[in-house]
Amino acid sequence: MSEIKTNNSQPGEGSGALIYVVDDEPMLLELATVILEPNGYRIKTFRDPEVALQTFAAANPRPDLLITDYAMHTMNGMELIEQFRRLEPCLRILLVSGTVGEDIFQSSPSKPDYFLAKPYQAHQLCDIVRNLLTKK
Question: Which residues contact 4 (CB under 8 A, 6 or more apart)?
């Protein structure tokens, strides 16, 4: 794993921040883990948005950041964001998608804090995560 390079990232800079990653594609969950864990983040992945929501509702402490895909089988990312925001209005949320653009949430009352289009580069994800977590 020491071969992973993520521009401007230092090992351990994540200070153990907990990040939930929700995507119904196992490969994309693994990719997010491989990119973020070496930067000091703790990653908990979910293929099922309903399970992510149930886990979040019962979690103590709750995660510092939610990263969710838009297109999933049982619930789309905007529906998941709305549910998470009901439980934790100030939670930082990153929406990623290769099927929709930022216009998908323009008229929504529950918006992500940032949108990242797929495909993305590892350093982009790391930079966005770092920026979102420092805004807390």
Answer: 34, 35, 38, 122
Please answer whether residues 118 and 96 qualify as being in contact, where contact means their C-beta atoms are separated by less than 8 angstroms: yes
Average pLDDT, the chain: 88
Cβ atoms of 66 and 43 within 8 Å: the answer is no
Task: Give CA–CA dist 74/5, Å, rounded.
Answer: 34
- Closest Cα to residue 95, out of 74, 125, 59? 125
Tens of pLDDT along 56-95? 999 999 999 999 999 998 899 999 999 999 999 999 999 9
Contact 128, 112 (CB under 8 A): no
Q: 12 with 99: CB under 8 angstroms?
A: no
